[in-house]
Amino acid sequence: MSKFVLPKQSCSCEEAPSGHVLTVFVISPLRGPREGGTLVTIRGENLGLEFAQIQDHVKVAEVDCTPIREGYIPAEQIVCEMGKAEKSQYAGNVQVCVGECRPEFMATSYKYYYFVVPKLLHLKPSRGPVSGGTMVNITGSNLDAGSNVSIFFKDQKCTYHRRGGQWILCRSQASLHGCGNMSVAVNVDRALLQRDLRFQYVEDPTILKLEPEWSIFSGNTAVTVTGTNLDVIQSPMIRAKYNGRETVNTCIVISSSTMLCQAPELPVSLSQSDEAEQPDEFGFILDDVQSVKALNTTRFTYHPNPVLETLSMSGVLELKPGSPIILKLNFSVLIGEKPCTVTISDTQLLCESPNLTGRHKVLVRVGGMEFSPGVVHISSDSPLSSTAMVSIAGAGALLIFFIVLVLIDSPLSKPFAELQTDIHELTSDLDGAGIPFLDYRAYSMRVLFPGIEEHPVLRDLEVQGCRREQVEKGLKLFGQLVNNKAFLLCVIRALESQRSFSMRDRGNLASLVITALQTKLEYATDLLKHLLSDLIHRNLESNNHPKLLLRRTESVAEKMLTNWFTLLLYKFLKECAGEPLFSLFCAIKQQMEKGPIDTITGEARYSLSEDKLIRQQIDYKTLGGGGRRGVGAINCIHPDNEKSAEIQVKVLNCDSISQVKEKILDTVYKNVPYSQRHKAPDMDLEWRQGRGVRLILQDEDVTTKIETDWRRLNTLSHYQVPDNAVMALIPRQLMAYSVNNSTVSRTSASKYESMARYTGSPDSQRSRTPMLTPDTESGVKVWHLVKNHEHGDQKEGDRGSKMVSEIYLTRLLATKGTLQKFVDDLFETIFSTAHRGSALPLAIKYMFDFLDEQADKHGIHDPHVRHTWKSNCLPLRFWVNVIKNPQFVFDIHKTSITDACLSVVAQTFMDSCSTSEHRLGKDSPSNKLLYAKDIPSYKSWVDRYYWDISRMPAISEQDMNAYLAEQSRLHAQEFSTLSSLSEIYSYTHKYSQEIVDVLEQDGVARKQKLAFKLEQVVTLMSPDS
Fold it and tell me: Which of 288, 375, 796, 949 has its CA at a distance of 20 to 30 angstroms from the CA of residue 78?
């Protein structure tokens, strides 16, 4: 947006209202062809009082744009037609003058208008019926440019529907020339787009036969349709009309001569009709083909819906496994996913019930109707089976197909709802204070010095003996030099020019400088701005593309920028962004753990990362035997209080013992910071089987299965642990208990005769099966669920049945769907200037304005470059690091599968901040395909975020310095300044001669005799002094 106030002394009433602000804030469209003809709508305030005032005074991207009288709204809106642009013209602002076109009466838009070249590539489908009605998708590039689009098939229009950047959708009209190929052309304003594209009109489809020619009032029974040219229709529909009401249903095209439809319901009052009815019209909607809309050759008939009676008076039918369920009428039956064995008579069907036990609901589906006749209770100890009759009246001798399903809960049903419930349980008492945030010092250290637990800057300076006083004196003098900007800039310049000063050294120096200046953040900020200014100047002088600025961490300035945001955004993380980030982490972790995770490879059934997806078929069951792909539960005794109530823990029977221990610890200590709870390697898992029998379970022991050169980790299934088994975590035993043969008891049900179980005194009532150490010399390899693919001697057949890509990509999408809300919440929070009651941190506005100032200084007006600088500065430099590494913010443990999923989210975040278009194809990475439809929305959030920030009032140096002083005061005691200076001095001492040379060449440093002062420090710090 551009604003100016017209001076009162130079404003006449014919030009603009005195003292009023002239604004231009909406331009539509923002892109158009160079050929011109685009109608550009400009909206704003005080855009003239009469048309004559702006008639010849509008330019768009330096091209004359002729205002149109009919589109002009005084003071509010201008519509103008673009002239032709030269090939050298690329982009520019909108300029509007009111009255005389002098600088004081001119407004310039904030946004740019771009000239683009629309192109055509393909169209699909490439043929349709001669009667028209085909929705044709034309693909290409820059197809959303301009204001008007028209599409022609030879000399007749294809009715425009809608368009996007890479596509135009139009509806074909009836052919004026009969069948044949028609050339395709597209006009975008005055630009004519042509390519060798053809659309073929073919003969209209016909309907020859329906089978069967009946349904029931509720419809949804299958109808096989035979005809010709059926495959030229994209979305065929079947229709019925009765008493003035029309109903439709879907069809699927099988081939050019066959399609399968679901009969539409007949809109009749079910309470008033118990006889067969025929619709007034019955036919098909096949694009604009009218000849099949109402068929005269069919007598399609509707019969009343069947009426089903309950299985028994009580609603529960007692059966023995394998006993038959008798249902009257003729139909086909499935029990679960298995077809049952049936015996058919004229009015009855005998169905052998599946080999199941327990209570199961029976669901009957007849066409579009559902009815539950009751529940079957299949029990091995029930009396001899009785039979139940389900009467179905009103259908006559009509053959109806319906399915009987035994409904068994599946862990995959309503996955998002389950996940929401789990997250709510986890965070219900996390009101912000309960989220395990690291304190300021721990958080800062994990970002500034990743991987270093005990850094010297965290403790007081350690100097031995009598040298302490002299070293402290030297460091205080060195501190005075460090607080001199000219000195520190020369030191950094000298160090960065040394080939032996590595990227790691540069990052370390940047972190040491920020810790040394923690108490003087105003100075640190001024230093950072100077370093960034120098970096921008060098980048542009070396003819590097401006967009590459700040993309990598190759300089002290870039790492220091990361550190600066790290220190100043901690409060924003705690009060605002931390909550959705923690929820996303928890959501990913819990969703991954709903399915198998290979503890060796880190691969999982549910994943966002294709690289970490289990591609083999893994059979896993509930511990209670309730079916496939289930989550069972064990009851765990609290490790710190054996007398407290048992805690239910969700586990899978394919979980390794270490995974079970982790799940128990996650459940028991769900609100406890990770560093403050027991660790799985320090605990043993003890199975308490009753009657004093206890067994310690391990990942590997003497019962571990070994096949050729592969040894498989033990799982709960290996130990035959049942559902609701009682487990306890106990401190890890240093040695195996000796087994007294006289007290060993063996359970015949177990196939592991080598497992020792014994009964004795309470303290000795546990057995330990000895752990097997990996045999590296023999080359035996360990595996859990899938064998590591990296072993070269492994044959393809050893990997199990490899699923095709469509199957596991579908699983990626399903996982993505359950996590979508959490990703959206995080992105929305980050890309919002005022969210969750928190205002935009001053540091963000301040740094963005600084980058804009630098762009202005160097004459960079390309909005894409400015956008990229901001993205490289904050989202890609700070937020991506935090998203990929939530352990920098929270006291948590991040597994490899969670890390892989977070990397996909972080990559999506990066793509959302990019200004380049992402072209997707069959070889595109799966993570790009997963979020392809979401990224355009995310990009609009980023654009809006940057735009909102640009419109906020600038922060004065006085206000910023006050804020920085307060931050320095709050965290003045976090780091040891002397220790930080000592670490910086080690670099200075190593390259002292090179630094002195730079100091003597710098005019300001030479004037202040900084080289001499550094030599004084070196003398004081010398061990020989």
Answer: 949
Residue with tokens 């001569």: 257
Answer whether residue 632 shows pLDDT above 80: no
10 Å CB burial of residue 152 (0-12, 13-18, 19+) is middle
Residue 806 class from Cβ within 10 Å (0-12 exposed, 13-18 middle, 19+ buried)? Answer: exposed
Q: Tell me the C-alpha distance between 109 and 105, whole Å.
A: 14
pLDDT confidence of residue 737: 38
Assign 317 a pLDDT band (cuts: 50, 70, 90).
low
5, 133, 179, 696 from 154: Cα distances, Å: 54, 16, 13, 80
pLDDT(934) > 60: yes
Please provide residue 670's backbone torsions phi and psi, each rounded to the nearest 5 degrees: -65, -25
- DSSP secondary structure letters along 734-785: SSPPP--GGGEE--TT-S-TT--EE--SGGG--EEPPPPPP-TTTT-EEESS
Cis peptide before 29 (omega within 30 of 0): yes
**Single-letter residue type at 84:** K
Who wins on pLDDT, 1023 or 741? 1023
Query: Are 215 and 306 contacting, i.e. CB atoms less than 8 angstroms apart?
Result: no
Preceding omega of 125 cis (within 30 degrees of 0): yes
Distance (Å, whole) CA 984 – CA 1015 = 15
CB 82 within 8 A of CB 65: yes
Q: Which pairing describes strands 767-768 and 693-697: parallel, antiparallel, or unpaired? A: parallel
Interstrand relation of 127-129 and 191-202 (parallel, antiparallel or unpaired): parallel
Rounded alpha-carbon distances, angstroms, from residue 458 to 130, 171, 979: 80, 70, 8
Instruction: Name all contacts of 467-474 with Cβ < 8 Å and 24+ positions apart.
Output: 467/1023, 470/1020, 470/1025, 471/982, 471/1020, 471/1021, 472/978, 473/1020, 474/1017, 474/1020, 474/1021
Ramachandran angles phi, psi of 304, nearest 5°: -60, 150
Cβ-contact 340, 403 below 8 angstroms? no
Distance CA 340, CA 262 (A): 24
Q: Which residue has the tokens 């953040």?
A: 521
DSSP state of 347: S
Close Cβ partners of 966 (under 8 Å, ≥ 6 residues apart): none
Amino acid type, 317: L
Structure tokens at 511: 């972190």
Q: Is the dihedral of CA 390, 394, 395, 396 positive or negative?
A: positive
- Supply 563's token pair: 């550190």
